Amino acid sequence: MNEVQPIRTDAENAIISRFPDFAKKQSHWGGAEIARERTAAFEILKSKGLPSRRVEEWKYTDLRAMLRDMPSPAEAPSREAVEVAAREKSAIDLSDAFKFLFVNGKNFAMVKAEGFEIYSLANGDKLPKAVSDTLARERKHALNAAVALNTAFMTDATIIHVPAGKRLARPIHLAFRHEGKIAQSSFPRVLIVVEQGASVTIVETQDGPAGVAYFDNALVEIDAGDQAEVNHVRHNNAGGASITLSTLAVRTGHGTKFSSFAMATGGAISRHQMFFDLAGKNAELSVQGATLLRGKQHADNTMIADHMAGGCVGRQLFKTVLDDNSRGVFQGLIIVRPHSQKTDGKMMSSALLLGDDAEMDNKPELEIFADDVQCGHGATVGALDENLLFYLRARGIPRREAEILLIESFVGDAIQHIENERVREALMSCASAWLAERS
Amino acid sequence: MLEIKNLHAEVADRKILQGLDLKVKAGEVHAIMGPNGSGKSTLSYVLAGKDGYTVTEGSVQYQGEDLLALQPEERAAKGVFLAFQYPIEIPGVTTMTFLRTAVNSVRKQRGEAELSTPDFLRFVREKAKDLNIDQEMLKRAVNVGFSGGEKKRNEILQMALLEPKLCVLDETDSGLDIDALKVVADGVNALRSPQRSMIVITHYQRLLDYIVPDVVHIMAKGRIVRTGGPDLAKELEERGYAGIETEIA
Ligand SMILES: Nc1ncnc2c1ncn2[C@@H]1O[C@H](COP(=O)(O)OP(=O)(O)O)[C@@H](O)[C@H]1O
Ligand SMILES: [Mg+2]
């Protein structure tokens, strides 16, 4: 087919011109397999360009228009930068966590693993079978622009392997931090394989300097085996001028319990993609989000729950608070394959508009091919309820405090699902701090 | 305590209150009775300061101050309390958090120290016990899933905790069975004092057997049309609102 090529943007030109040198520099690791994957990803980007609003999936987050330029891929940070990063604290900072520190996309973990193993693809570490099997599996979302960008420009893949039956009492913390005043791009990549019956809590934090227009595009893949239990929480607190893309790609097994929570307060433009493949029967998937935006911030939560096997329960609840002229996006898709009977899926997205010029785009969708299922979705957008405010004020609570109480309860409704108490409280304080800064 | 003169108020461009006069002295309990739609709830909202209730004429003096110039929260802090006819449900906010925020907001505005958590808990437990409110109810979101009786008792609990000077009770008896009514009436009676005034709005005489008023007013079409002693309520019960309305017409 002969498609008309639109004129390339600066970002697209940057991708095309930087790739050959970049790929050459990375050719010392990964062998032919990685090189092939990398090139394939690049070819997708080159032929399709960055997705614009004409691409249905990117309708509300026009990456082509938003990512005007792609800053150069980050160089290895200086020792000082790493030391500075190591001292910084994130909103969620658990003293007992196994902390992996990623500075400008590169892993500087000084973790002593206990009960699990850490590998690096770039180091050519010999991988256990469970990991190589996962790596060998075809990537369903390889065509997605954010995933393809990460694959084309990855500098390593950090691999965490939790062997069968291991129940890690201490959480794993992936701390993604951007350092320095120069705008750079980073493409961190992590694969976590949690084998049968193992359990782990994973916390991701994303922080960076205000006023630096950096670009971050992380890919975290989690393969959770049969009966495994994984609680995942992420907080995007990226610098106020940054553009961030992030993808969480999850595959669950038989009877797996998986929860994921996405909080976003940072960044100028952000898009978090959650792809859940419910590949085994009777898994439980619980996903929530709390997004708090102000100024001109734009944040997108895009979720696909693919019920590839029957009997799974899926619950999604996303809460978005929009002040000033910020913009929120929620796209949620529940797919139920023909043989996935007894699927029980519910998806809800609610937005609270505080600013007169704030905007929310909700796009919930169901694609159901099985007949014996229970699926539903809902979406609401509205301002604070004046009747509720009046009731509180009639009890002596000043308007501003009444608003805070109502907004806290609005996002608290999602945050309360987080199992780990300290993480839950950290995110609740984070929401309170955001509210305290409200003018 | 309270002096309302020639009060006219509109809601959504509809004239509801049309020249209402009412004077309540400290320590007095006044009952306002009237048919549905006569403007009783509108009066209570105007006194509490709800948006959308526009006063077009007249004045309301409360403890020598222009009540209408104050924000709802300021009125509450100065001692005006409205027990809502339809208490609002607030999902996600526990009753305990709500009560503590309210009590401490009011204390702060009154120049009093905020209560520590243990002091507050002791205070709430004591008042809640008198109203047959158990601890479980306090842990639930405000009014969410509460029965009619629980909602009304929760209103009286708030009234007890906020220590108001002027209480306006809007049909606190509606939807209550006789036992629940007694609990609520006992709660209200316990708060009667020479410094505290009450306006008890009701559609039925029944409540006034338990909360005996000093003065009874009959309201119709946005005005007080008759004023008398407790006997007036009895007369009303015998003759019905229709009889009274023909009399004034
Ligand atoms: N928000 C409103 N918008 C329009 N009309 C209203 C509103 N609130 C009350 N009214 C009208 O005002 C009149 C008085 O209502 P209300 O004060 O609730 O009476 P009562 O409490 O005595 O039953 C009624 O006719 C009612 O329909
Ligand atoms: Mg009424």
What would the keywords be for this entry?
heterodimer, A: 439 residues, alpha/beta, globular, B: alpha/beta, six-stranded mixed sheet, four-stranded antiparallel sheet, 40% helix, binds adenosine-5'-diphosphate, binds magnesium ion
Describe this structure in words.
The complex is a heterodimer of chains A (439) and B (249). Chain A has helices at residues 10-25, 31-48, 63-66, 79-87, 129-136, 145-153, 386-393, 399-415, 421-436; strands spanning 98-103, 106-107, 117-120, 158-162, 172-177, 185-186, 189-194, 199-207, 215-224, 229-237, 243-252, 257-264, 269-278, 284-293, 298-307, 313-322, 327-336, 344-353, 359-368, 374-382. Chain A is of the alpha/beta class. Chain A has one domain. The longest helix of chain A has 18 residues, at 31-48. The model of chain A has no long low-confidence stretch (mean pLDDT 95). Chain B is built from 9 helices and 12 strands. Chains A and B meet through helix 7 and helix 8 of A and helix 2, strand 7 and helix 3 of B. Residues 11-12, 14, 16, 34, 36-42 of chain B line the site of adenosine-5'-diphosphate.
Task: Produce the secondary structure layout.
The complex is a heterodimer of chains A (439) and B (249).
Chain A: H1 10-25, H2 31-48, H3 63-66, H4 79-87, E1 98-103, E2 106-107, E3 117-120, H5 129-136, H6 145-153, E4 158-162, E5 172-177, E6 185-186, E7 189-194, E8 199-207, E9 215-224, E10 229-237, E11 243-252, E12 257-264, E13 269-278, E14 284-293, E15 298-307, E16 313-322, E17 327-336, E18 344-353, E19 359-368, E20 374-382, H7 386-393, H8 399-415, H9 421-436
Parallel strand pairs in A: 1-5, 4-7, 5-8, 6-9, 7-9, 8-10, 9-11, 10-12, 11-13, 12-14, 13-15, 14-16, 15-17, 16-18, 17-19, 18-20
Antiparallel strand pairs in A: 1-2, 3-4
Chain B: E1 2-11, E2 14-24, E3 29-33, H1 40-48, E4 53-62, E5 65-66, H2 72-77, E6 80-83, E7 90-94, H3 95-109, H4 117-130, H5 135-139, E8 141-142, H6 148-162, E9 166-170, H7 178-190, E10 197-202, H8 207-210, E11 215-220, E12 223-228, H9 230-248
Parallel strand pairs in B: 3-10, 3-11, 6-9, 9-10
Antiparallel strand pairs in B: 1-2, 1-4, 4-5, 7-8, 11-12
